[in-house]
Amino acid sequence: MENWFKLKERGTTVSTEIIAGLTTFFTMVYIVIVNPGMLSSTGMDFNGVFIATVLASIIGTLIMGLGANYPIVIAPGMGLNAFFAYSVVAGYGVSWQVALGAVFIAGILFVILSLTSFRYMLLDAIPSSLKHAITAGIGLFITTVGLQNAGIIVASESNLITIGDLAEPMTLLTIIGLLITVVLMSYNVRGYLFIGMVVTAIIAWFMGLLHMPESIISMPQGMATTAFQLDIAGVFSSGLYTVIFTFLLITLFDTTGTMLGVAEKAGLIKDGKFPRSRGALLADAVGTTSGALLGTSPTSAYIESSTGVAAGGRTGLTAVVVSVLLALTLFFSPIIGVLSGIPAITAPALIIVGYFMINVISKINWTDMEEAFPAFLIIILTPLSHSIATGIGVGFIFYPLLKLFRGKGKDVHPIFYIFAVLFFIQLVFLDH
Q: How far apart are the first and last CA of the chain?
């Protein structure tokens, strides 16, 4: 174990790595509740998505831990799951099988990029202002989904949306659960999202909104309902080219940014370089591809991994511990199914994750019109159009046009013009 993980070299011990793994697990385990609930809204079987979520997370995380030796967890990404369910399936009107096909193709492309230097060109082609705008737009999108699921905001005939009935029991419980979770967060309680869910579930039980299942533990079942059900041919017949690109783009730069941030916090960045970056990116790429085969949305590196680093995690042993704990959750599907079916339990997590994602707007230079206005369009159109691809597309079209009209066309990376043309074709001619 010492030779494999290099514990002494990184100044850690087995016990420290176990504690770090436990810490990371409790800060990110909310995804096994939120993700199946979100994706099951597309018609997918809850148990199938639940198993796919756990297995895809284990596969990606084990590769990260055993192959790249980093204390970083891989799991279905927040924002990507919302895009899958509410934009691609509900918005574009395609089946979840076709959506899985798009995820699979994006995953294969990600694998190829992970093995080549082209990934750096793709990342460099996108201005930082637009990267931050995409993150912020997704954050607003996720928050909107959480508010709608809870009934805090509802559709209105006179307005686009309006405030819901806050006295309605489920909506009121959501507000209570959100307040509890935010208070826990303000006191830096580790695992506050998961703890907030548990506390809210207890209150829901007292309010008669939660009914315990006959058994809490059961053998995993239902994987066949989603595994290998993807429809790749349907992706091309539906013209979902920018959907593939959106999955790939978000996964690539979100994962890269998260990995760099966590590795830097752990003191693993050497001379400004990210060692074993190929293996780290490959872990997420394989996680996304295997997740599509099993039946879930794209995976991503989790920023919650930083909590394990703060607890002393420095090696892949932390990730292995998380994988073992994730495997244990497979036997708790009855109670997880009940929890995910109550909006008041899952909505606060969506709202808070959105809050963290929108923080990056402070990194956008709002005094530079050419950078700021396309970013603004991405941020505002992503939640309003209920489509991450639409928000990105409009911003990616406006950015090079503004540069060209300002006589700065050479400042735009050549590949970015290809992105703009593809999004224009998709939005004008192929959009549903």
A: 53
